[in-house]
Design a protein that fits this description.
By secondary structure, the chain is α/β, with parallel strands linked by helices. 30% of the residues lie in helices and 26% in strands. The radius of gyration is 23 Å and the shape is globular.
Length: 458
């Protein structure tokens, strides 16, 4: 497949890395020649320096015979015009645009993106994706990472193992024997900064970050077994009242269970806008690092605090201060993945990486064949792939223990019809089954060959 990616920032680079690794013909376009050079030096891609919305630039990028264009520059307007030019001049079949401005995303204007108006097939909103991720973190407060699969029936949970964890130093194969009815599987472990897919003989140690697949009905029991308490979120403080903070606050206001929310926003203009848009939420204008303002927001009595400003360091420090003031659970929005190792030493319970969230969202739409969902873990170190098994796949009709999976692959859950089950060695994978797989980045191409998933849009 021939793909043009407009924008060579973090999101564009990660998408280019994924697609070029799967032997697609990828061309990266960016007005910053240095970013283009970085992409061509580190990835198997071609690069064009120039403005993505210019027809002559897209022509040089090979738009005449491209199958797809992904517009992920920093400008909404450039992304929209790029898709229009791709459609009107070059007839590119599939067009994906990243749009940030809430005005472009309002449901009442959705007709704007029809083929005869502004022909964009898929609109990705980073703010909406990040807000959804924040709400998921709040729903599972003892987990540092969460994602939903199989239409909500299976959840991926990131759990930090503490010294008090009941199953510490226990081989994973024994967990299966001890909790035979528990529909949960440990699929990934991060230890000393390194992520790996564990073997049955591996044990969990204090300080490990582990990724666990659980059936939605077994989440409370899974968290309890791993030494985590589940608690209700009734009082929430948000630091940052921009697009992300406002979206989260609006969802919390609309939640069926009454959640008392307070928003702290430094910009007076943003604070006034948030106050007008929200009905029951108290909005405070001031610095989220100000101890007196945090006290006024009731941080010591809050069940959770989310720091979602556009500055990573502010978010981290706000979380540290909230913890010091007595808040149980804090979440930070972190754009720079190199800051993630500091989360645990600073006592920050969970983080949201907007780029990983956006990349996962775009990949979900790119892999349009039998792959139903993709979630990027960490700094693109691994993926969780949900896929339907085709009759042509080498794994169809085989039992799990017979399948020659790559070393960095583990099956997390299997759905047969309406039933989601924990995979055992004796579980047979049939055509039409949906499987959720944890796959280390280097094994993604091999796994896609095993699934024989064609990226098919036609």
């Amino acid at each position: 497949m021939k793909v043009i990616i407009c924008g060579a920032g973090q999101v564009g680079w990660q998408i280019a890395r994924h697609l070029s690794g799967e032997r697609n013909d990828v061309t990266v376009v960016d007005s910053n020649a240095e970013l283009v050079r970085r992409a061509t030096d580190t990835l198997d891609v071609q690069g064009i320096a120039g403005f993505a919305s210019y027809p002559d630039v897209l022509d040089r990028a090979g738009a005449r015979d491209a199958d797809m264009i992904i517009a992920a520059t920093h400008s909404d307007e450039v992304n929209m015009v790029t898709c229009q030019v791709a459609h009107s001049v070059f007839g590119i079949n599939r067009k994906i645009a990243r749009l940030r401005s809430q005005s472009y995303l309002d449901a009442i204007y959705s007709d704007l993106y029809r083929r005869d108006h502004m022909p964009i097939d898929v609109v990705i909103s980073p703010e909406k994706e990040v807000a959804a991720a924040a709400l998921q973190r709040l729903a599972a407060p003892a987990a540092f990472d969460t994602e939903v699969f199989m239409d909500g029936q299976a959840h991926l949970l990131g759990i930090t193992i503490d010294a008090e964890c009941p199953v510490i130093n226990t081989p994973l194969r024994q967990l299966t024997d001890l909790f035979s009815t528990l529909r949960a599987v440990v699929v990934g472990i991060r230890r000393d900064g390194s992520l790996f897919a564990p073997e049955p003989k591996d044990q969990l140690f204090a300080g490990d970050d582990c990724y666990v697949f659980s059936h939605k009905d077994d989440i409370p029991r899974t968290m309890e077994i791993f030494g985590k308490k589940t608690s209700k979120q009734e009082r929430v403080v948000l630091v940052g009242g921009g697009n992300v903070g406002l979206t989260v606050a609006q969802h919390l206001e609309a939640a069926p269970n009454r959640i008392r929310t307070k928003v702290i926003e430094k910009s007076r203009v943003c604070a006034e806008h948030a106050a007008e848009a929200l009905e029951r939420t108290i909005v405070l204008n001031g610095d989220g690092l100000d101890a007196a303002l945090l006290a006024e927001a009731g941080i010591s009595r809050a069940d959770a605090m989310l720091a979602v400003t556009d500055d990573d360091k502010t978010n981290m420090l706000a979380c540290v201060r909230a913890k010091a003031e007595g808040c149980d659970y804090v979440i930070a929005l972190i754009n720079d993945p190199t800051l993630v190792p500091l989360m645990t030493p600073l006592g920050i319970d969970a983080y949201i990486n907007p780029r990983a969230t956006t990349v996962s969202s775009i990949l979900r739409h790119i892999r349009h064949g039998r792959v139903r969902a993709v979630y990027s873990i960490g700094d693109a170190e691994a993926e969780v792939i949900e896929a339907e098994v085709l009759s042509t796949s080498p794994i169809a009709g085989k039992i799990v223990s017979e399948i020659d999976f790559p070393e960095g692959v583990l099956v997390g859950m299997v759905r047969k019809g309406d039933k989601v089950i924990r995979p055992m060695g004796s579980t047979r994978i049939d055509e039409g089954d949906v499987i959720a797989l944890f796959v280390l980045a280097e094994d993604v191409p091999k796994m896609e060959q095993l699934l024989q998933v064609s990226i098919d849009f036609f």
